[in-house]
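Supplementary notes (optional reading)

For those who missed the lab, this is the record we used. Protein: BglG family transcription antiterminator. Length: 245 residues.
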Amino acid sequence: MTLNDQTITIEKIYKLESEQQKAHYKSLVEIADDNVLQVIIDSLNFISNTAMNVDSKQLVVSLTDHIIFAYKRLKQNQVISNPFVMETMQLYSDAYHIAKQVIDQLNAALDVHFPEDEIGFIALHIASNTEDLSMHEMTLINNVIKKGIDIIESDLVTTVDKESLQYQRFIRHVQFLIRRLRRKEYIHAQDDFVSMIKNHYPICYNTAYKILTMIQKQFDVNISESEIIYLTLHIHHFEERINQS
């Protein structure tokens, strides 16, 4: 492909199927500099050559759109903060690792310095093309996890270590909990076990109840008391860590 007498190297051909995608991509190409388009194409080739099963056709438009406007904002000193970088890194570690390499390539090729926030954004674009969740759903999950951690920190009067094993287990539990609830897959606990956990860990149970009430409203799903019990156990791990310190 040649634009403005400069050659752009293409290793693969990405076929856009819908007319809407084609029109949107054409409008993006018309406003972008050739060197920016080249590095975007290089990034798409890099991502599609990784071990992750990425839907390249879906990613072409979304990633091109994101990088073009992220670059324009950066040149204008307008940086958008990403409050979910840590959650994204923990939940989608493979996509995050690839996104970091993409950002490194963008920084080198365009002689800029994208902040870590952009790694998180690009990781979500990559993950949304490999997971059974949309970008919107992944953002909702990240938001729920962040609010859940805020509730835990408030109720237990502590600061959660985002590098800890307890944190990683908690966010994984919430992620798979939401997936199960969306598929209407429910877990069950025996009544005596439910009573024991409620009596032994009342603060953690109350915290779990608050978090799951939030999830119930956010995703419009039904939540059983068994779910509260299992989340209570995860929250209790945070409480144990506090008592040990």
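If you only remember one thing from this example: Residues 135-244 form a domain with the PTS-regulatory domain, PRD fold (CATH 1.10.1790.10).
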